[in-house]
């Protein structure tokens, strides 16, 4: 090939490669071939400069850093003044970015769109050329009707040369379109016949640098590895463990990345179903499932440091929070004392002050809804449904005797909304039964006080059959003492205003009963009862004296 033809080939190569790069949607610069080298016209800015690397024959490596604003280039002459050797060269350019400060977004930016790569060829006369345009002579076919043993290395391809330097290569395939095809010529229908091919790079100008396994008969490419993929992009160790981004996988599938290793599950609609994409990923902030299709929401997250069995689903579908052995549909095990174990905010609040709602449908009669149990397994408080349509809230003593019940109106076991304290079947709106009424939980036995709506005072148990140690009270001069106690109009300092009543100190000082801070209505009533008795006695005395006077007057009149 003469020099004029070489110049023509170089010009055609320049036009083809420039057009190809210009049409690449992912390019970050236009590649401009010139007589002295290659210039790159940037389409995007680089905040932290540009890294440019080129590799070529005989281990040639060129690494250059360009500051922001500088035009990157590759010269056909090295800094030491040596011309680039003939052969094929690979280049890769990277836009360097500044790392933003502050919290990193979970949808972290992958920097693959900040890289561009390509190839160029130096001809034997030192010119830029298209490898596809270099002429070569074809050797005649050789047929060897016996085994072929080569004591050395072999080079196959249009570009093999006399004096080829093999290094450690045993077999070298060398030309501008390298293919290794496995063609099965089996004719028996019972034998497999599929043809396969190993393909290195696309054959057309501007094509992809890659290594592929092609299913020739099926017309498919099930495996492709792009050039300059990171080391250990796919690694299978001797234990069958698969590493993605690592050569030391420690589990069956091990993914390593510097920022948020991610697995994407994409249903693309090719089978007629609605497209949907989920990401499963993890980083220093959380492990999460991301719903890409619906606004990249994070419906499931686990923060680093979560404890063992923070969420644990047993084989019987019981769910444990903080326990690996749940024994209820939802079993919450406190991680520490004095902590809130269940908080429900119905307004989306996070500070725990918002009102909450909780609905539990037991779906059966005589079923426990809420049961508070002591450390020794005894019932303390229970909210349950009885036969009918209502519910009961009960509290129990240390012997599991039901001592407090609020029941709603309902069937035979419901008590018209009555409240029983110390017993469980109140017959009045409020029934208070003595806690010493051992042996039974029913109201109506032992010491008891009751009150219905509209009553102004309690109805109390007062039969001698319920009392002992009876001793009459005698208060001397009770009328004089009562006369010494004033009735006041007053306001409570921290409570109701404009009230009328006695002062506890006055009553306590006069009668010596009760407390000097609190009054007993029954004691006041009994004081008045004693006053009435004394008035009755005085009245009887006066009536007797009056009768005597009337008799004397009658005698005087005779």
Task: Give an overview of the whole structure.
- Helices cover 13% and strands 29% of the residues.
- The model is unreliable at 1-25, 102-110, 130-140 and 410-415 (pLDDT under 50).
- It starts with a helix and ends with a helix.
- It folds into 5 domains: 3-99 and 106-133, Immunoglobulin-like; 174-269 and 276-302, no CATH class; 309-357, no CATH class; 360-470, no CATH class; 478-557, no CATH class.
- The chain is built from 4 helices and 34 strands.
- It has helices at 3-23, 478-483, 504-511, 521-557, and strands at residues 29-34, 37-42, 50-56, 60-66, 73-75, 87-95, 115-122, 128-129, 154-156, 171-173, 178-182, 196-200, 210-215, 220-226, 235-236, 242-244, 253-255, 262-267, 276-282, 287-291, 297-302, 312-313, 319-321, 330-332, 367-373, 379-385, 391-396, 402-407, 419-421, 430-433, 448-451, 459-460, 488-490, 499-501.
- It has 558 residues and is α+β, with helices and mostly antiparallel strands.
- Strands 25-26-27-28-29-30-31-32 form an 8-stranded mixed beta sheet, with no helix packed on it.
| Derived structural class | alpha+beta
Main beta sheet: strand number and arrangement?
A: 8 strands, mixed
Q: What is the strand arrangement across the widest sheet?
A: 25-26-27-28-29-30-31-32
Give the radius of gyration.
Answer: 50 Å
CATH superfamily membership of the largest domain, which one?
A: Immunoglobulins
Question: Which residue ranges are poorly predicted, with pLDDT under 50 across at least 5 consecutive positions?
Answer: 1-25, 102-110, 130-140, 410-415
Q: In CATH terms, what is the architecture of the largest domain?
A: Sandwich
The total of beta strands comes to: 34
Query: Beta-sheet strand percentage?
Result: 25-35%
Helix content: 10-25%
Q: Count the helices. How many?
A: 4
CATH class of the largest domain: Mainly Beta
Please tell me the overall pLDDT: 81
């Amino acid at each position: 090939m003469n020099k004029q033809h070489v110049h023509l080939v170089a010009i055609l190569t320049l036009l083809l490669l420039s057009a190809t790069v210009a049409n690449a949607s992912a390019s970050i610069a236009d590649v401009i071939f010139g007589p002295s080298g290659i210039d790159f016209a940037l389409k995007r800015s680089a905040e932290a400069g540009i890294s440019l690397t080129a590799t070529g024959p005989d281990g040639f490596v060129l690494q250059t850093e360009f500051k922001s604003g500088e035009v990157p280039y590759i010269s056909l002459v090295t800094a030491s003044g040596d011309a680039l050797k003939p052969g094929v060269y690979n280049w890769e350019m990277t836009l360097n970015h500044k790392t933003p400060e502050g919290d990193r977004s979970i949808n972290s930016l992958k920097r693959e769109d900040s890289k561009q790569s390509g190839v160029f060829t130096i001809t034997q006369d030192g010119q830029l050329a298209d490898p596809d345009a270099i002429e070569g002579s074809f050797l005649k076919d050789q047929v060897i009707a016996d085994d072929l043993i080569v004591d050395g290395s072999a080079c196959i391809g249009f570009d093999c040369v006399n004096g080829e330097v093999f290094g450690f290569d045993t077999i070298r395939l060398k030309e501008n379109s390298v293919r290794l095809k496995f063609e099965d010529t089996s004719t028996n229908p019972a034998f497999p016949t599929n043809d396969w091919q190993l393909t290195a790079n696309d054959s057309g100008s501007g094509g992809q640098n890659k290594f592929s396994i092609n299913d020739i008969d099926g017309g498919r490419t099930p495996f492709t590895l792009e050039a300059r993929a990171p080391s250990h992009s796919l690694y299978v160790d001797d234990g069958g463990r698969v590493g993605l981004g690592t050569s030391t996988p420690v589990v069956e599938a091990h993914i390593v990345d510097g920022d948020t290793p991610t697995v994407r599950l994409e249903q693309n609609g090719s089978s007629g179903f609605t497209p949907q994409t989920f990401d499963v990923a993890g980083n220093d902030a959380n492990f999460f499932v991301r719903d890409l299709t619906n606004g990249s929401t994070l419906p499931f997250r686990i923060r680093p440091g979560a404890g063992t069995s923070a969420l644990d689903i047993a084989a019987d579908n019981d769910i444990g929070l903080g326990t690996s052995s749940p024994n209820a549909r939802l079993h919450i095990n406190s991680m520490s004392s004095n902590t809130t174990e269940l908080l429900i905010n119905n307004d989306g609040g996070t500070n725990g002050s918002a009102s909450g709602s909780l609905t539990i449908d037991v779906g059966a009669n005589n079923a426990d809804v809420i049961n508070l149990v002591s450390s020794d397994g005894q019932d303390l408080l229970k909210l349950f449904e009885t036969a009918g349509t209502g519910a009961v809230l009960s509290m129990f003593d240390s012997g599991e005797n039901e001592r407090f019940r609020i029941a709603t109106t309902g069937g035979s076991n419901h008590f018209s909304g009555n409240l029983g304290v110390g017993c469980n079947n109140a017959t009045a709106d409020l029934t208070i039964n003595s806690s010493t009424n051992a042996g039974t939980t029913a109201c109506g036995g032992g010491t008891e006080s009751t009150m219905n709506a509209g009553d102004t005072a309690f109805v109390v148990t007062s039969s001698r059959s319920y009392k002992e140690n009876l001793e009459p009270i005698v208060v001397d001069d009770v009328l004089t003492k009562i006369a010494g106690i004033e009735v006041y109009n007053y306001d409570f300092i921290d409570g109701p205003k404009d009230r009328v009543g006695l002062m506890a100190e006055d009553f306590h000082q006069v009668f010596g009963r009760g407390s000097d801070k609190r009054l007993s209505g029954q004691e006041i009533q009994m004081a008045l009862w004693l006053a009435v008795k004394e008035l009755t006695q005085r009245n009887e005395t006066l009536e007797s004296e009056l009768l005597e006077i009337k008799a004397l007057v009658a005698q005087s009149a005779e």
